[in-house]
Amino acid sequence: MRRRRGNKPRREKDVHWVQPHGSLLPLPDEEVRGRALTVHLALAVCRAGKGNKYLLCELARVSYSSYYMWKKGVGSAEVDTFTAAEQVLELAAEHAEESGIWLLAASSPVERLVCLYDEQLAAVTKAVFYECEMQVVQAIARISHASVHGLTPVEKRAGMYQTASD
User: 98 and 43 in contact (C-beta within 8 Å)?
Assistant: First the structure.
């Protein structure tokens, strides 16, 4: 290791992680509007009975993201908000598999969740948002793994809420 005059060489334990520039800033308005628009369109299309698997999955992803932001202290809600929304999404998916119609009822818990998500997007920092998005990816991977190993939806859901407190 090459030494500079008067400086000690850096040791691994002396190196500290530095947050990227701007990670404590809120999300850019453009990104907030884009994400909110995507979610509101998915909700509107599914409420009109014209949805599809992708749009329902997008709403499920938002429920996870919102939950993880809530666990980090962003937004005010009760855990029932998330469990009720997830139950509605699961019922809609089951109904769609049987009927081929991807439909969410108006005034469902999912609508309340989307409003909470809007509030969270306006308040969350970049660092917290992207950390929560990473948790969503990890949760989806765990659920995918669990479905391969035969867990029921209730067991999968319990795993999601259990690992969120880690």
Answer: no
Q: How far apart are CA 145 and CA 133, in angstroms?
A: 18
For residue 91 the two structure tokens come to 């019922």
How many angstroms separate the CA atoms of 66 and 15, rounded?
33
Half-sphere CA count of 118, side-chain side, radius 13 A? 13
Please report the sign of the dihedral spanned by the C-alpha atoms of residue 109, residue 40, residue 93, residue 74. Answer: negative
**Residue carrying the six token digits 């005059």:** 5
Q: What is the pTM of this model?
A: 0.74
Cα 125–Cα 29–Cα 120 angle in degrees, nearest 5: 45
Summarised one tens digit per residue, pLDDT across range 117-151 is 999 999 999 999 999 999 999 988 887 766 655 55
The predicted structure's pLDDT at residue 144? 75
Q: Is 83 helix (H, G, I), strand (E, B) or coil?
A: helix
What 8-state DSSP symbol labels residue 104?
-
Q: DSSP for 28-77?
A: PHHHHHHHHHHHHHHHHHHHTT---HHHHHHHHHHHHHHHHHHHTT-S--
Nearest Cα to Cα of residue 74 among 16, 32, 108:
32
